[in-house]
């Protein structure tokens, strides 16, 4: 298990690399919901997502352990983060991405001097390939979520929320492999267990919801079909899943059309560029049975690396 002390150490280690992202507020959404609707703006984070936190923590530790080569498997955001920090430290990096990876994310990896390899459409395709490349180059594989250094790094989001928001009541967090939500859960629940933390994942990639229901790690759905490409995982992690079982208040599953609406609302009314994966947190706030009226709610906007050429297919009208 990752502890609050691990997260505090991670914050010290990554402080010079990451941004402490702002808390945004939507007056219109607050009026609509009757809640104080706030947003943790990780879409404005360096490399465009929260992933830089965990990646920086892990790659710095890997360098301390003597790593001379780094690999990662990623739908884009984790790969960008690993490529960025590896480049900063002068370590060669290869990122294995899906064959349908968002072009803007692939280009960003290359702009950070990362080498790109393509493999399949799911993490089950990408991870073995990345591990093989690491082995062939006597390197270190940096997993996207299932490692203590990754979870501790992502947990710094939770630390910042507790420091930036007075009397926070509810936090909605996107869930893919579970690194972000596991880190946030550890930080928040060890600081104030009364704060409710809800994970959110697409119905088409609901492996965590099924796993929690069954009490064991399961695969479910067809994650390659969800528009939330950053949440396309086959199953929760061996490390992250027990943390969710211990701490999470509930796991909310959301529909694709509702994700489109939430994403479009953020673009139109808040003027913020987010990706579909980031929109699932607001989707849950707007559509779930969680009672948020009169409460202070933080929606984690996990990333903003969207392919601008696909926006026409992703956005919908928010008014009739």
UniProtKB/TrEMBL annotation:
Residue ranges annotated for the Tryptophan synthase beta chain-like PALP domain, each copy included: 16-303
Keywords: Lyase, Magnesium, Pyridoxal phosphate
Recorded coiled-coil stretches: none
Any one Pfam family match given in the protein's UniProt record, by short name: PALP
GO molecular function, a single term: pyridoxal phosphate binding
Catalytic activity: L-threonine = 2-oxobutanoate + NH4(+)
UniProt EC number: 4.3.1.19
Gene Ontology annotations of biological process type: D-serine biosynthetic process
Cited InterPro entries: Ser/Thr_deHydtase_PyrdxlP-BS, TrpB-like_PALP, TrpB-like_PALP_sf
Names of required cofactors: Mn(2+); Ca(2+); pyridoxal 5'-phosphate; Mg(2+)
Family stated for the protein in its record: Belongs to the serine/threonine dehydratase family.
PANTHER family: SERINE / THREONINE RACEMASE FAMILY MEMBER, SERINE RACEMASE
Function, in words: Catalyzes the anaerobic formation of alpha-ketobutyrate and ammonia from threonine in a two-step reaction. The first step involved a dehydration of threonine and a production of enamine intermediates (aminocrotonate), which tautomerizes to its imine form (iminobutyrate). Both intermediates are unstable and short-lived. The second step is the nonenzymatic hydrolysis of the enamine/imine intermediates to form 2-ketobutyrate and free ammonia. In the low water environment of the cell, the second step is accelerated by RidA.
UniProt-recorded name of the protein: threonine ammonia-lyase
Organism this protein belongs to: Allobacillus salarius
